[in-house]
Protein 1
Amino acid sequence: MDLDAIAGNVRALRSLLPPQTAFMAVVKADAYGHGAVPVAQAALDAGSSWLGVATADEALELRAAGIQSRVLILGPIAHEWIPECVAAGCSLTVSDAGVLEVLARWRGDRQPRAHIKMETGMTRLGTTLENLPALLNAAAASEITVEGLFTHLACADDPASSVTREQLDAFGAAIEIVRARYPDVICHAAASAGVIGHPDATFDLVRVGIALYGVPPAPHLRAPGLRAAMTVKSRVIRTLRVEAGTPVSYGATYRARRPTTISTVPVGYADGYPRTLSNTGAMAIGGRRFPVAGRVCMDYTMLDVGDAPVHEGDDVTIFGEGGIPVEEVAATAGTIAHELLCRVGRRVPRIYLREGRPVGVQVSGVAQPPAAG
């Protein structure tokens, strides 16, 4: 994991924003598989002023690591988590009166801070425009700080869609209602696709997820200066010369069409490499792509390397620098880069780099000191 790439991506994306617009680094889902704590720190050092997470335990993980920046929990949380999250200084998402009832009973030292989530067309979470006045009345009765107002754009990556304009119009109406009571409320709508494709949607704050990790949110939304932070590598653990007709892997769905060499790589679907890449995917060795031969196993994948000089111990790039871009691998697998990054398993060690040198290692989700030398 290249932490310099994370920092550079923050700076590149901030350059697209008005000076007054704040930046939130979205580090939910263990920072899209990259490691929440090191990514959060790199993003904050580079100029991010907010962190975004999805769940209470993700927020508290950041606090336990000593990170004291502003943290917004973007989704609803179980009511029993609310006191601990408020005590930790986290901002909560509110879209119904149930959360406000819990906050009204809060008697701690910190004033609860809430961001109201608006339903404008995603049909997932949030209060409607019709219910907004009642929610604001409940918020006033709870004596909480209404810190923010936000929505999520469903089609920001589609320039032909009218949905984004409709959502922004609805959000504008909500802003008028809320700012009549809370003039300083922080308004935000744009995620990565909105930042790059909809400059009119940046408002006071942007929430950057996939672009933070150097991956474009869509093929036509490539911001200059972005660099992928994650490269997944392994090594060849076996090579075997086989004759034409030799079956490979479960179900014998692949048979060598000629005398060839089959190389085994200790990466499988338990590590996040999709089984849908059976007989369709590829990995890179020495800068050359070699096709996946047969079905992807739980722990192993085989490659047909032909007559190439591939040997046990050779480096294999699953995706990333020196290999195939993650978005291309994801497209072949019938999914998106977001999912592929998040699926990289816990047993895959994360090695963190600064200026090309290791500065930390995470193994099975546990941080380790960098190796000596």
Note: The longest strand covers residues 357-363.
Protein 2
Amino acid sequence: MYYWLNVIAWASLFVGVGSSLVIVVDLLAGHRHKMAIMNIVWPVTALYLGPLALWGHWESLGMGADDKARKQNAGVGQRPLWQKAVLATTHCGAGCTLGDIIGEWGVFAMGATIAGSMLLTDYLVDFALAYLLGIIFQFLTIVPMKHLPPGKGLWEAIKVDTLSLVAFEIGMFGWMALMHFGFFSTPPKPNQAVYWFMMQLGMIAGFLTSLPANWFLVRTGIKPAM
């Protein structure tokens, strides 16, 4: 059983990393997003959403059939609310994903524990890094979009992204708890493919729990649509 799980894990990681590299190559070829931060968001998102993120990258550039139809029928830049919410969630999720990846490797490499718990350590480090990177990502988006001074831009970034960041980590941390206490008698470690396959699934869980929060924030105008 574990053999086949390991095979699936390697296949999933290959698809995720491969999709990310395709996006990077496409960006280097000159197919870049007007909002510069999305040139980072889409490759990071592809690490866990794979071909779906690749499709989203092309659609956002106006290279997909759906996007072309939208421009013809609704006018350039007019996206339905659900698309705006999905874009906002990928943006939020990219900061969280990078924070989780850096945090997981850092905690594993140092062998650090809090109260003897590796999972609790992962939670605290991951959340701190994810929150920091998420706010930076939002700051780099909202300042040029609204032409804000840095101080006000930082406050706006904190105000509009905290809810979505917390929602993402709730899904992510819930899945990590299942990975540690429910799915395995001996949980996998960050130097194993199965661990990162499970983290891919955890990031998808985080995406799903963050999507309603971003939908609410965009719909109410608290978070600017991208």
Note: The chain has eight helices and no strands.
Protein 3
Amino acid sequence: MSMPKGKKPARAAKNKKAAANLFLLSQADTMLPLVSHITEEIQARWQRLVELEKEQIDLERRKRDLNWPERSRRYSVNDEITAEQNKLRDSVLELEDLNVILVDPVVGEAAFPTQVQGRKAYFVWRVGADSVKWWCFANEPQRRVIPESWRKTTPVPGVEQAV
């Protein structure tokens, strides 16, 4: 069966779209100011949620002995938790819109999809780092240091360039 002229097989279109979502190392480094801002915000919101949840547990444990201001606080803590969860979700979605994956909200680790030696991989960055320092294959927890040769402007053997 032949394809109508001008039509591409669905697989070819899907592969081209997937390749467009891959990052070059230089692209990942260029996006760091924005990704850093969002990831630091996620870290702060995560920490705030931890604090609020501890306070909520304490207030719930003592709920029969609370005076009126503490009872009022017990209700407002629930509202604050809901608001922080919504803001946290929005920040994570903002990263996803950039095609960046939040790996760990506590340490502030994010990953940029790429391809190395024909395999799905990620460039990994952590809050506090001035550039992307690590990479890993998909589904492998081991982080590898990015070789300096990958930072050169010429194409890197084995690292496929995004279209």
Note: Residues 9-18 have pLDDT under 50 and may be disordered.
Protein 4
Amino acid sequence: MLDWNGFKNTLQHNQVAVFGLGKSGLSTIKALVENEITVVAWDDDPEKQEQANKLGADIKDLTKIGLSNFDYLILSPGVPYTFNPHPVVDNAHQYECAIIGDVELLHLLKIPTQTIGITGTNGKSTSTALMTHILNECGLKAKEAGNIGIPVLDLEWKDKLDFLVLELSSYQLDLTPSFRPDYSILLNISPDHLDRHGSMKAYVESKSIILDGTGVGVVDIDDDFAQVLFDKFFLEGKRKYIPVSVFHEVPEGFFVKNDNLYQNHLGENQELANLSDLPSLKGHHNYQNIVCCIVTGLQIGLDLNQMVEALKTFPGLPHRQFVVSSQSQITFINDSKATNAEAAAKALSSYENIYWIAGGRAKENGLQGLEIFKDKVIKTFLIGEAEENFAQFLLKNNFEVMICHDLENATKQAYESAKNDNNPSTILLSPACASWDQFSSFEERGDAFTSYVQELVKV
């Protein structure tokens, strides 16, 4: 059970502010109120205000009242914090009110289990779900939470867990001044969210938080940013740091070669497992997720053979290269979670004869780097705010392009084109964009695609 009494004994005012009333904010209010802690909450959305009020929060504009009598400001990860901070952040600093997120609050409540934290620009959700699956298949009890969609304070603690597996975004890590996972995984770092962090340096610093403190740190060193962090923390020696790679051999670490996982120790390479026949983990990029999870499992003490068997039964994620339908010669893939070019590259590299649906609200680098997949893509169907700019980029790189404006039309047009193809083909939703121009989330976008596909294949 969580130690609410111990936490309450540390409070001076028995009053906590909550700003930003998304899923994690409302979850936090519910938990605080149930444990008799006074909550003052604010969000610009009147509907969210009403929801918070029904949960027992007092609704006040926290940017306009002094926060000197509050023990904490619990901030939604979506609220700008470090770069161009929201006025509520400045208000809290002025009154020396501690700013934390819900993960840090869970830590202050003394999490009654070991924790595995996973971060990276891409692959966080897949690795979090995969790590949880492996633990459960190996006979332990584990749950996933955090950025993967389940707020940490919504978890039930009646039955003891062996592990809590947390997907942690850079925004969430910024709000964890003292929480450090027992086992940490850093998958990769590439430019993303720079409008929130202000610079690549600041973004990397946010990611680096997960490697601080004691425990075990598993780091894929295939990109320069992750390599620099590994070198820095390895020299500091606070944790046991283990390097992994899916592209080259690493001394005293783990690597993939010819679809096989190896461990290097004292200059000797030992073959551990073959990774080629895993139906829900297609594509070379998934080796990164697999290897980091297996290496973490080995550090925990899990059996290698059991972990390999668990890989074969992993169902995948609904919005990450998920097979929606496969009929005749056409396979429909929902990769709605690919919200930047690097994530879309993972999917484009995994299939042939692609009818690609892309677009939405573009990230800073647009489609840069995806021109190398021209020979895999038969035609691109563009939607959303980015469609005109994307069209210019793709046409310049000799892609065939159709402007479709919205996802329903794009799905229909892609299907009509693929039906006339004599070869097996893939209709791939991998937008390389945020969803917020036309949808509330990548999940809603992926669900819409699934419903459009289901209607089409009935015909």
Note: The chain has 16 helices and 22 strands.
